[in-house]
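Exercise 7 asks you to align residues with tokens for two separate proteins.
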Amino acid sequence: MKKLFCPVLLLTALGAASVHAADVAGLQISLIPDVAIEDTSTVIHGLTIDLLCGENQQIGVTLGFYHLMTDDSEGFAWGAVNYADSYTGVNWGLVNLTKQKFSGWQDGLINYTRVEFTGLQSGLINVAGHCHGLQWGVFNYCDKLDGLQIGVMNITTDNRWFNRVPNQFGAAVPFVNWSF
């Protein structure tokens, strides 16, 4: 029984390892998500080049036009539009959108993180749910601020520094807004 059990266990472990290895790749080149070297379920640890649009979980460098980075992606993304479920790292693009959490630096014309942002947003328009860090742009908006906003117009709907002032004044502050 022992002699049969060990080879079966070894083959099962090798099979599981090969399935896991098949879900990871070092290079992705895509025209669109369905016309690409790797399937959209493959995690890319390395370089991704999205000629028009790509869709993968990214861990590494992503270059191209339109990126759909799934799950918890990380690294550096440079493109016209960078969209991520959650992202850690740097997004440089005309438009940077994050569905859940972003940690790092977003730089573009429009930066948007729906739930929680930590780091630096620099651009024309910066929007975050809960902002931990610095928003630096012409128009800055967040629901809750633990940090600093510098811009022509800064809006924070929940800022403990201005709770006693009427909401019409306290929510919108020109030039500098803070909450620590």
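Second protein for Exercise 7:
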Amino acid sequence: MYDLDVGGVGSSESGPARAENARTPRFEILIAVLLGVTALMTAGAAFLGDRDDGQQLRFLQQAAVTQSEANDAFANGDQVRALDQAIFIEYALAAQQGDDELAAYLIQFSPDLQAAIEVWANDANGGETPFSGSDPAYYPAPWADGEALREQAAREFDQGDFYDQRGDRFVAATVLLAVALAFFGVASVIWLRRWRLGLTVGGSVFMVAGAAVVVVNLV
């Protein structure tokens, strides 16, 4: 007569050992829930990272366009300044000759020059011309437009940099959540209870860390 093992033919574990390492339905449900939640959070973090990459590209492209417009405005201001300097020379000659009518006629074509001459004439510390001195009275309107556009470009670049950095943090969260998925995946198939518990706890730590990174950057 052969003595059969009630635990199954070829079983190498005793009854208490099998009970120690047996997987319970509760554990199976817990792992399934953790895997599902972590998978959803991983997908969400990846989506947020991709979205921020798109936002970064959009703002950087817009900043480049705005900076180009600012450069055009400064170049236009340089051309206006050169023309107004030529007009001012003729104006100064007419004023020295006492031809006030010609002088007034000349500066009417340039509101910027006319306003600068008024400021310059009343400024005891002004330079030799409205165009000279440490703080010249003359400042063409296109330069003001260029300054405004340059500040706008700087803000757009900063916004793009913000999305770049935040997108990197979402990528880091995706990595943390992917590690958590790996831990949970191994825990779902391993039989040793201590290993299952350790992997589940480790995966939970990585899952919470990844979720915290996502939440902090969304607030």
